[in-house]
Amino acid sequence: MPERPFYQPGASSVEGLPLLLQMFHTNPLVMLKPHWHAQVEVNFIVRGSVHYRMNDHEISLSAGEMCLFWGGLPHQMDDLSDDAIYAGAHLPLVHFFRLHVPTDIRHRLMTGATLVTSATDQSDNHNFERWNRYARSGDQAKAEHAVNELLLRLERVRFEPYRLVSAT
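-> structure tokens emitted (168 positions)
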């Protein structure tokens, strides 16, 4: 049985390019140790499941769940199912602060809470695929459009059931 590959901090540009929107739609990698970066992280679990150790809590996510958390605090994806696929973004703070969300949610996120919703549907998978293509296209207009659509999707979370997970 082949050994599973692991996430290597520094091998991606997330830690080194804090002002760049980075989108992904891929198989996640287990992290051997916590890492942090200067972006808010959005993860949508397309298939399978993942487990995170956050700064002060742990969280398991399954297919169809989406989460949002401040990547500036230590976090580690320490387990995942063999079939896991996830999509999402490392959202620069300049865009996070454009979000129209209640102040208490913004505060809780920036102090370590994880926002989780299972109020998703098949359009989320298609949207994350498109946003990933647009962000990687080299076309600035498409990349900006991806950011704007992602922000609107995140703003919509407050109109559906969600939970904020933290140690407190």
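Helices lie at 93-96, 103-110, 122-136, 140-156.
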